[in-house]
Amino acid sequence: MELPLVNVSTCELRFVIRFFTTKNETAVNIHRNLVTVYGEGCMSIQMVRRWRSWFLEGRQNLYDDERSGRPVTATDNAAVAAVRNVMEADRRVTINEIMIRLPPGIEIGRSSIGTIMLDVLNFRKVCAIWFPPFLEIHRRDGDQLFSPIVTGDESWVHQSTAETKRQSMVWKKPEEGVPKKAKFTISAGKVMAIAFWDCKGVFFIDYLSPNTTVNAARYCEVLTKLRTAIKRKHPGPWSRKVLLVHDNARPHAARTTQTLLENFKWEIFTHPSYSPELAPSDFHLFPALKLHLGGNLFANDDEVQAEANHWLRRQDTAWYNSGIKKLLQRQIEIKKNAYITPNGIYEFQVMPFGLCNAPATFERMMDKILKELNYLNDIVLPLNIKKCIFGTKLIRVFGHLSYDNGIYPDPENIEAIAKFPTPR
C-alpha cells in the first residue's frame, strides 16, 4: 500500500475536486479519494462540497478571491518613515508614546507599530547593561587609576597543604615506572591570614588568634591598622585617596564597617552582585601563596606565618601590579556570566561548570537564609507520604528493580519487549 502524499498545495486539491466533478462524482466519493491519496486532514467534507458546487456553477479559478475591506496601509513608506523619526528622536520611547507622537495623517494601530519596529526596521528593545564606574574611570584616567587601589581579604593558611599535580611532575625514562606518592590530606592546624596590598607591594599582614573568627568588630580593628600602615608608607594627601576593593562578605558589608570607612573618607569599589570573590586577593594573591606552600610541612603556626610573610615580601612590584590590573579584565568579562535570583545579582568568579568551593558556598547560603537556626536539626522538611516507601527490600525505579543485593531489569519491560509484534 502506497503512503499518503504530504506537503500538498491547496490548489492541487482543488484541481482534483474539479476533475472528479467533471466526471459527475459525488462529494462523498471525491472526499474518499482525497483521503486515500493525500491522507486524513487534507480537506474536510464540507469544503469539498463547497468547491464542488462552485465548479458546477461554472467556476474555473482555483485561487481564493480577493477579500473586501480596508487596504493594507500600515506599513507603507509614510508610516515607516514617521515611526522611524519618532524612535530615533528618543530610543526609550514606548509603543504607546509613538502612537501619540505620530504626525497628523498617520493613523496606525499599536500592533502595526510593533510590526514596523520588529519586522520592517528590525529593531529590538533591550535593557541597558550595568557598566561598572571602575571601567569608565579607567577609560578616562588610564593606568593612573590603579595607584590609589588598596585591596585585601582573608583566607585560611594550613600547616600542611597538598602539592598540585603539576608540582609533582618528574622526568622519567621509558623503562622506568610512574612514581607514586601517598595520599595527602590538609592538616587541621591552620591560621587565618588577612593581607592588604596595592600595585607596589604589601601594606599590612595580620593573623587571627586561634579559635577566633572575622566579625565586624575585628574587621574594623584591621582597617584601623591598615590606615596607620598606609599613612606610614605614603604620608601626605595620598593616604586619604584610597579606593578600597574588598568583597561583600558580612563583616565587610556591616553597618559598623561602612560607618568606619565613611569616617576614613575612603572610596569603596562598588559592585552590584553578592559574589563572595571580588577582591584580587581571591584570584591572584592567595592562590599563588597556597601554591608555594603546597607540599611543605610546618610544625606550628609561627612557621607558617614566617614563610608566608617571607614569600609575600619577596614578590616584586611587577607581580603585585599585574594582580591589580587583573581586576580590570575581570570586570570586563564577569558580566557575561551574571545571573539574577530573587535575592539579587550573582556572578561566577570561575568557570560555572563546577564550584570548587561548593560546600562553603552552600554553608554560607544556608547561614544567610536561616540565620540562627540549625538547618539540620531545627528544620523539618515536609514529606509526601504517597511518594514514600518505608521498610521495603524492593523499589521499582527507572525501569529497574532495586533489591538489597543488586539492581535488575524490570520483568514487565522484558515481557513487553518479548511480545512486541514483528515489524512488517
UniProtKB/TrEMBL annotation:
PANTHER family: MARINER MOS1 TRANSPOSASE-LIKE PROTEIN (PTHR46060)
Lineage: Eukaryota, Metazoa, Ecdysozoa, Arthropoda, Chelicerata
Name of the protein in its database record: Mos1 transposase HTH domain-containing protein
Residue span(s) of domain Mos1 transposase HTH: 13-51
Taxonomic superkingdom: Eukaryota
Organism: Cordylochernes scorpioides
Xref: Pfam families: HTH_48, Transposase_1
SUPFAM superfamilies: DNA/RNA polymerases
